[in-house]
Design a protein that fits this description.
Blueprint (H helix, E strand, L loop, with lengths): L11 H8 L3 H15 L4 E11 L28 H13 L4 E6 L9 H13 L3 E5 L5 H10 L3 E3 L18 H13 L3 E3 L2 E3 L5 H12 L7 E6 L16 H14 L4 E4 L8 H9 L4 E4 L11 H11 L2 E2 L10
Parallel strand pairs: 1-2, 1-9, 1-10, 2-3, 3-4, 4-5, 6-7, 7-8, 8-9
The protein binds S-adenosylmethionine, 6-(5-methyl-2-OXO-imidazolidin-4-yl)-hexanoic acid and iron/sulfur cluster.
Length: about 325
């Protein structure tokens, strides 16, 4: 039997030892952990919306929305609350149980908070899980979000602490950890993960998972993104990460964080059905649905319905995560 009790004392060498197992041993272990904690065949459908696009002052080397790079994206202002709620209603009708709203900010401004609060309240009333990703938060803003009823806050650490400065220079890895800690202390569920294919080594992937797995509490939600190379960014010409290495990372995340929802996030547009199926066998239990992520393409509803049918999957209801606070 695999040990399925959450642990918070992972060493880098233990994590690397999980990675180097034969694929059948690794997936077997991950699937055992998944089946002990999650229902078979359940996959959460989440929908994203970019509520404020482009013009971001940060320099994340992968991002279409950084003002530092010419990616051809035009910046827009914060979307009106009623438009956001209309989008959420459509997402719910299409079967999503979670709505994740993202803004291209370093941090929210006070003047934007009333609209943000109204978006959270409105989406929550529809019975969907609410998630926001707005950049760094002050202690006061964190409390405002909690009081509005926010379920999850997304704030990715993206990669290992060592590799972080090669990708982002306008903030530090520790800044990210500080916001995550504030979110946890406020009683909001933490959503934090990263991107593969940034040019990192396996030791960085292991380091990223070690940082997440050794937080005071495991993030209740762990998105694993495959880099979508964006023309005009420093990483626009990066080679695709090997699909099996991606699957291995999902499996290791599942084993280390048994009661966290592991999200197969960006990059599905370039993944075969078989790669996605391997990700689900390795423990992933959520995807983003709809034609668009934030600014890039995603497989549409017809393709995803065909995948659900082929693999015998059912949408997972809101608030199914066993570690949710
Ligand atoms: N500005 C906020 C922030 O950075 O926290 C929220 C929005 S940001 C676009 C959300 C996450 O999407 C990033 O942390 C990153 O992990 C992921 N992401 C952004 N661009 C990506 C890309 N080109 N490929 C894969 N993942 C990406
Ligand atoms: C996450 O880890 N991935 C999502 C969500 N959290 C906010 C965003 C993916 C963005 C992909 C690039 C784009 O569409 O701009
Ligand atoms: Fe800004 Fe977020 Fe993009 Fe970084 S990832 S440039 S913080 S929108």
């Amino acid at each position: 039997m695999s040990d399925t009790l959450p642990r918070h004392n992972w060493s880098k060498s233990e994590i690397e030892a999980l990675y180097v197992q034969s694929l059948d041993a690794l997936i077997g272990q991950a699937l055992e952990v998944k089946r002990a904690n999650w229902p078979d065949g359940a996959l959460q459908k989440s929908q994203l919306l970019s509520i404020k696009t482009g013009g971001c002052p940060e320099d994340c080397g992968y991002c279409s929305q950084s003002a530092k790079y010419d990616t051809g994206l035009s910046a827009s202002k914060l979307m009106e609350v009623k438009k956001v709620l209309a989008g959420a209603r459509r997402a719910k009708e299409a079967g999503a149980s979670r709505y994740c709203m993202g803004a291209a900010w370093r941090e929210p401004k006070e003047r934007d908070m009333p609209a943000i609060v109204a978006m959270i309240e409105g989406v929550r009333e529809m019975g969907m899980e609410t998630c926001m990703t707005l950049g760094m938060l002050s202690p006061e803003q964190t409390i405002q979000l909690k009081d509005a009823g926010l379920d999850y806050y997304n704030h990715n650490i993206d990669t290992s602490e060592e590799f972080y400065p090669s990708i982002i220079t306008t903030r530090t890895f520790q800044d990210r950890i500080d916001t995550l800690e504030r979110v946890r202390e406020a009683g909001i569920n933490v959503c934090s993960g990263g991107i593969l294919g940034l040019g990192e080594e396996r030791q960085d992937r292991a380091g990223m998972l070690m940082a997440l797995g050794n937080l005071t509490e495991h993030p209740q939600s762990v998105p694993i993104n495959m880099l979508i190379p964006i023309e005009g960014t420093p990483l626009g010409e990066n080679a695709k990460i090997d699909a099996i290495e991606f699957v291995r990372t999902i499996a290791v995340a599942r084993i280390m964080m048994p009661k966290s929802i592991v999200r197969l996030s960006a990059g599905r547009e370039w993944m075969s059905d078989e790669t996605q199926a391997l990700c689900f066998l390795a423990g992933a239990n959520s995807i983003f649905v709809g034609d668009e992520l934030l600014t890039t393409k995603n497989p549409g509803q017809d393709k995803d319905q065909a995948l659900f049918d082929k693999l015998g999957l059912e949408p997972m209801p809101a608030h199914s995560c066993p570690s949710e606070v």
